[in-house]
Structures are given as C-alpha cells and as structure tokens.
Write a structure and sequence with these properties.
Number of helices: 6
Number of strands: 0
Helix content: over 70%
Radius of gyration: 16 Å
Structural class: mainly alpha
Strand content: under 5%
Mean pLDDT: 83
Low-confidence stretches: none
Largest sheet: none
Order of helices and strands: HHHHHH
Shape: globular
C-alpha cells in the first residue's frame, strides 16, 4: 500500500465522516462514488467497501453528539431500524451481486436523483 493510497483512504473517510456528521450522509452517497472515481473500484467493490466501513458503528459518536445537544433521538426506533437494516442489507446484497455492474450504477444514480429531487423540491412532504 503506497502513501498515495493511504492518503486517498484517509481523505475518503474524512470527507464521508464530515458529511455524515454534518448533514447525515456519508456511506453510500459519498463513499461509493469516491471509491469508484479515486480508487478505481467497481460498483460492487465500492458498495461492499462502504458496507464494510459501516459494519463498525462509526456514526454512533456523531448520533450521540446530536442527542447530547438536545436533539432528542428515540434510541428504540434506531435499534429496530438497525435490526431491519441488517436483514434488508443481507437480502439486498444477495440481489446486488447478481446485477450487472453497469445496470447497478444506473440504479444507484437514479436512486440518488430521486432522493435529491425529493429533498430539494418536496422536503416537507411525506413519501
């Protein structure tokens, strides 16, 4: 592993961490595209790496900071969602590994566009 690769990995983690802590994004939204662009990963590799990083509860400290500063979090809800996320992640990965990389990139991009449009133009409306 070269110093350049170590630098890119640290930069990727720092950017994802800063955006995760400040605006609640980081995993797939930031790490997947950066891993593809800067590390030359395939879509499958980038998604796997993003999930591997999140396997350790890296965002717990950031969530606790929000909670500690008066932004009440319902930890019971978070635990239920986390449990369902594990199950959904397992089945989602089973589906994704069988999808062609080019199609998977397009699906990923469309999901990002839908979320962006919803957040920009319909931020107060429920899905």
């Amino acid at each position: 592993m070269t110093i350049e690769i170590i630098f890119l990995l640290l930069l990727l983690g720092l950017i994802a961490g800063l955006l995760s802590g400040s605006v609640g994004v980081g995993g797939g939204v930031i790490m997947v595209p950066l891993a593809i662009w800067f590390l030359g990963y395939t879509q499958h590799q980038a998604q796997g790496m993003s999930l591997a990083v999140l396997a350790v509860p890296v965002t717990f400290i950031a969530a606790y900071t929000y909670h500690k500063n008066g932004h009440e979090l319902d930890w019971r809800y978070a635990l239920i969602i986390a449990g369902a996320f594990v199950v959904g992640g397992y089945f989602g990965s089973k589906i994704a590994i069988n999808i062609n990389q080019q199609l998977l990139k397009k699906i990923f991009g469309v999901i990002l566009m839908i979320v962006a449009i919803k957040m920009i133009f319909f931020s107060s409306a429920k899905l």
